[in-house]
Amino acid sequence: MAAQRVGVVGPADRARAGRMREAERVELERLRREMGEKNKRIRELEMERDVLKRCLVLWVK
Q1: How does DSSP classify residue 61?
Q2: For residue 55, what is the enclosing H or E element?
Q3: Which of 4, 24, 28, 29 has the fewest Cβ atoms within 10 Å of its own Cβ atom?
Q4: What pLDDT digit, counting tens, does each position of 24-55 carry?
Q5: How far apart are CA 36 and CA 23, in angstroms?
Q6: How far, CA to CA in Å, does 54 sit from each of 1, 44, 46, 48, 59?
Q7: How many CA atoms lie less than 13 Å away from 57 in the CB half-sphere?
Q8: How far apart are the first and last CA of the chain?
Q9: Using CA atoms, how far apart are residues 30 and 7, in angstroms rounded to an integer?
Q10: Residue 49: per-residue pLDDT
């Protein structure tokens, strides 16, 4: 069994860290895109709510 050296970073470790960073970047982009879509939907629903409120006010009068 080979002895492991603690604290030594080799090329395989760097490559693995690079892949992890890439995966994190991709996930972050996906979450940002999803958040943007949800924020857009929230704005649309708020506009619909405001229109319905105005319609109700006019109907009640």
Answers
A1: -
A2: helix 11-60
A3: 4
A4: 999 999 999 999 999 999 999 999 999 999 99
A5: 20
A6: 77, 16, 12, 10, 9
A7: 6
A8: 87
A9: 33
A10: 98
